[in-house]
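Box 3.1 A note on notation
Throughout this textbook, protein chains are presented in two layers. The first layer is the amino acid sequence; the second is a token string describing backbone geometry. Keep the layers aligned when reading.
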Amino acid sequence: MTNLYTDANGAPWKYQRWKEITNIHDGLFPEDDDRLPSNWTRRMSEDVKSYFTQYKGNFSEDGRQRFAQARAGTSSEVLGRNIWQGFIGKLWKKCHIHDRIIAVMRSENLHPISIAQVSGTPDKWPSSEEWIPIILEPVAVELFGQESLTVNDQYLDPDVRKVLRSLIQRTWTMLSRQNGECKKKVEALRAAAQAVICKEACGQNKPQKPTK
């Protein structure tokens, strides 16, 4: 999300659809304090803006990653980073971003479980590298609106495409983890049920004591 703002001219906060989803209609850094994102102070806004400026100054991807992951208490720490990451984490849950992405996967018949079921290898999780590029534009329209498709009015700008792909990847990975956990639970229930059946069968086969 930081890359989107710094490299794609303020995206996605400039898109009307994103404004409606997040209820943030005046961007991240309005001049009027009353129009700041919910629970932000002017100092918080300035800290986040400073973080963005310094992040953009790290031109290499590795440099940006190191800057974004600097630990608290180090010389590289920037106050705005923690504010920003906490803000995005809460916004993701509040606005149900993962759920919106999953809804698009289903509407496009490209949910990974659906793909696995028709692939002939239902136990093999589909490759995100193969399938995520197909749903980039539909997800962009859901989250950012049609106006985000700036290349021939059909495709995403490369800077937006790159970040959106990583966001969809998070959802894909989350679904994979949930699928694995569900399989483990099913196996545990199956094993428990089998143990009960065996116990009952063994009990029925035990020789009965003669009655006096």
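The radius of gyration is 25 Å. The mean pLDDT is 87.
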